């Protein structure tokens, strides 16, 4: 690892891929074998897609569904990685390692565009990176994620985005006598 050559006088508001608060957090539930990073690894703080096998995760959609919405956002969540070959910090989860995908909640992220509160968050179909724009105005080569900007920032700086949470269960009464 090279010697640091920059001094930052203040901490950023948050770190990309980290939870921004303790509001409800929603995770994508994996199958019995969990989610694993595919060939080339998976970038943290980017959107990712579960591939056709149901376990492999990549920062691009499966070839059979090239314009599908991402499965979730890759959060910073690694447990028990105490190996010497991982001594240097990186924002890539190595191939074969566990991946955790968020499907809702408040997280810090980086976008290649400026983000303004209320804008929609879009994911690049080639690498899962984020771009922000008005709802319904997807930038070329992106897909709507269903997430929105909760606290904006300049391009390349951490902003907070919020993802959809579970839809509330219907409370309408049932006339069949079987419940909701």
UniProtKB/TrEMBL annotation:
Record-given protein name: Burkholderia phage Bcep781 gp13
UniProt-listed Pfam families: XM1_gp53_minor_capsid
Organism: Acetobacter ghanensis
InterPro entries: Gp53-like (IPR056914)
């Amino acid at each position: 690892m090279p010697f640091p050559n920059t001094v930052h006088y203040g901490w950023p508001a948050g770190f990309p891929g980290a939870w921004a608060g303790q509001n409800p957090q929603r995770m994508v539930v994996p199958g019995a074998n969990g989610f694993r990073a595919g060939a080339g690894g998976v970038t943290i703080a980017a959107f990712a897609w579960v591939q056709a096998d149901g376990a492999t995760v990549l920062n691009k959609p499966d070839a059979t569904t090239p314009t599908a919405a991402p499965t979730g956002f890759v959060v910073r969540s690694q447990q028990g990685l105490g190996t010497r070959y991982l001594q240097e910090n990186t924002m890539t989860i190595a191939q074969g390692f566990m991946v955790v995908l968020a499907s809702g909640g408040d997280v810090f992220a980086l976008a290649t565009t400026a983000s303004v509160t209320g804008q929609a968050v879009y994911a690049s179909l080639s690498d899962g990176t984020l771009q922000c724009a008005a709802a319904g105005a997807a930038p070329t080569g992106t897909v709507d994620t269903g997430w929105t900007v909760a606290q904006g920032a300049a391009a390349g700086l951490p902003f907070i985005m919020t993802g959809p949470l579970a839809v509330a269960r219907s409370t309408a009464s049932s006339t069949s006598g079987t419940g909701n």
